[in-house]
Design a protein that fits this description.
The structure holds two protein chains of two kinds. Chain A is mainly α. Helices cover 75% and strands 0% of the residues of chain A. Chain A has two domains: 2-43; 46-280, MetI-like (MetI-like fold, Orthogonal Bundle), CATH 1.10.3720. By secondary structure, chain B is mostly helical. Chain B has two domains: 8-64; 88-313, MetI-like fold. Classes of the chains: A mainly alpha, B mainly alpha.
Chain lengths: 285, 315
């Protein structure tokens, strides 16, 4: 019995260690948020949102970065969402089980693990130089679209897979074509799941910095972008620029911009979870 | 998924009845299917595009700089007057920061996964998992800020001769970022272990710890190992944290207190500078990018293989 007690005791100790390890992430997140809030809350004012970046920290703002992010993400959504859903529909609803399909799937799995900066090199050669889009919003959006496609496809596929087969069979039994079944039966049911995937992949695109630096997004933009061929900067690049400077004043600006970025991302995530919970209750099997 | 097969005669009669409209509909179906197929093929085109772009720019580089020099020279100074093109310092920088990151993320991530899957009550799990997901969703530039302006000053109090830019805080912060990746993938693997295995061990008198470490973990080992490999791939390709906090000094060292430069940080450095496109100096980023791509590709392929194999086991 002594031995048993010792084994139980060791188990307790281990449980304590494992619990401690689990809280490390939580502690780090808390410290990060506290530090950002401590440094950044002070700079949040109306002028911070409407001013352009400046050499003088007290006059600098995130206007052009915020507008740039809005432009880039809208275009990214425009390109990647239809393509991502279409690819997912093909793989879930149409693709035969053959070598080509397996190759496509392997590619998507692989691309999800390619470092984002490699997409930057691709964007630089293909869009900035090859298609002569220069360092434009359009080039940035196309690069980010390629980057988030694998995530978008995987999420949409999971949503499509969750639709029960009986629904499709009912459609076919009534003489509907495959596309009619997809369009009228499968997509409406899979929609909440797909939307969640869209929001999550776009929030990934909003936070991306490295590929946009590689395609040459500028850091000092003191004008509003007017069209997709204008030069641009985005929030993460503006943050990178401010963090890289030695003066504390710019570090405070970086923290302020991080607060804005995190609020945007967290509300997008919260919205995605809300959608998932709300819309999924409509269909029950 | 197969369409129900109907007798050919029926189909033909139906076609005649519906006539041209049906013909159009069939063309429409085919057009839609082709469009969807094209969308799916974009992933293949992307991979091909990456390989072509890297090769087209890296091959002229290797015509001017021999592969031997690239692999054996111990200095990396392409932007200086006295040029050396040895990848070793950048590789060492990348491996150093990645090793620090994994040294933190692997034990912490695995312990978290074991706690969440084998110990945690459902309520605790429901709180901790979303928090870990938030951690995974924070942009890397924010972690870069955290490494440079929080972790480094904190570590400087403990390690007096820590340089302002150093591999240690960049690596540790990267480790924090990677914890959720290790813990969620490992937990999935542990979750897939059938409960009957655990019950059998309990019936033999095993304690909870013994069940966790001697039954659940070994049974989920391939999935756990895959999560480690994916974590390594992620660490090697991570850019913003090291570009901000680890420095821009390509020196061949394994001392984590010093400023170093990783492969990714070098690409950022050149991208931000005014090196003209088409020069040998600029092509270095594609040569470095090619090495980076090959490393992560190899790791990803191994991980994908392992995951595919363990999924078969408990079906």
């Amino acid at each position: 019995m002594e031995l048993r007690k010792r084994r139980e005791l060791i188990g307790r100790v281990f449980e304590g260690i494992a619990l401690t390890a689990t809280t490390i992430g939580l502690v780090a997140l808390t410290l990060l948020l506290l530090d950002v809030a401590r440094r950044g809350l002070g700079v949040l004012s109306w002028s911070f949102f409407v001013n352009y970046p400046s050499r003088f920290p007290e006059q600098a703002g995130i206007r052009s970065a915020l507008l740039g992010t809005l432009w880039v993400i809208s275009l990214t959504a425009l390109f990647s969402v239809p393509l991502g859903i279409a690819a997912a529909i093909y793989l879930e609803e149409y693709a035969p089980r053959n070598r080509l399909t397996r190759l496509i799937e392997l590619n998507i799995n692989n691309l999800a693990g390619v470092p984002s900066i490699i997409y930057g090199l691709l964007g630089l050669e293909l869009f900035v130089r090859g298609m002569r889009l220069e360092r434009s919003i359009l080039a940035g959006a196309l690069t980010l679209s390629l980057l988030i496609l694998p995530i978008l496809i995987t999420a949409s596929r999971e949503a499509l897979r969750a639709v029960p087969m009986s629904l499709r069979e009912a459609g076919f039994a009534l003489g509907a074509t495959r596309w009619q079944v997809v369009r009228h039966q499968v997509l409406p049911v899979a929609f909440p799941g797909i939307l969640t995937g869209i929001i999550l992949s776009l929030s990934r695109a909003i936070g991306e910095t490295a590929p946009l630096i590689t395609i040459g997004a500028l850091t000092f933009i003191a004008f509003d972008p007017r069209g997709p061929l204008d030069k641009f900067t985005v929030l993460p690049i503006q943050i990178f620029n401010w963090v890289s400077r030695p003066q504390e004043g710019f570090h405070r600006l970086a923290a302020g911009a991080i607060l804005v970025l995190l609020v945007v991302l967290l509300s997008m995530n919260a919205f995605a979870i809300y959608l998932r919970n709300r819309l999924q209750r409509r269909y029950q099997w | 998924m197969e369409l129900t097969t109907r007798p050919v005669a029926l189909i033909t009669r139906a076609r005649l009845q519906r006539g041209i409209a049906a013909q159009w509909r069939e063309w429409g179906e085919l057009a839609i299917q082709s469009l969807l197929f094209f969308a799916a093929m974009i992933s293949v085109f992307t991979t091909i595009g990456i390989v072509i772009v890297l090769l087209v720019e890296a091959l002229p580089f290797f015509q001017q700089v021999s592969l031997v020099e690239f692999l054996t020279d111990t200095q990396w100074t392409p932007l200086f007057a006295q040029k050396h093109f040895g990848i070793a310092p950048l590789l060492a920088g990348t491996l150093l920061t990645s090793a620090v990151a994994l040294a933190l993320a692997i034990p912490v991530g695995l312990l978290s996964a074991i706690y969440l899957s084998e110990y945690a009550p459902a309520r605790v799990r429901a709180i901790i998992k979303p928090i870990l997901e938030i951690l995974a969703g924070i942009p890397t530039v924010v972690y870069g800020y955290f490494a440079l302006l929080f972790v480094t000053p904190l570590l400087k109090r403990v390690i007096p001769n820590l340089e302002t830019f150093n591999a240690l805080s960049a690596g540790l912060t990267m480790g924090i970022m990677i914890i959720p990746l290790v813990s969620s993938l490992s937990e999935d693997a542990l979750y897939a272990v059938p409960n009957s295995l655990r019950e059998a061990a309990y019936a033999l008198g095993a304690t909870r710890l013994e069940v966790a470490l001697r039954v659940a973990v070994p049974a989920a080992l391939s999935g756990i190992v895959a999560s480690f490999i994916l974590a390594a791939s992620r660490a090697i390709g991570e850019t913003m944290i090291v570009a901000i906090a680890a420095g821009q000094r390509p020196i061949l060292t394994l001392d984590p207190r010093r400023a170093i430069e990783t492969m990714t940080a070098y690409i950022v450095q050149v991208s931000l500078g005014d090196t003209p496109h088409g020069t040998l100096e600029f092509r270095t980023i594609f040569a470095v990018g090619l090495v980076l791509f090959l490393f992560t590709l190899a790791l990803n392929m191994i991980a994908i293989r392992i995951i595919q194999r363990y999924r078969e086991v408990y079906r």
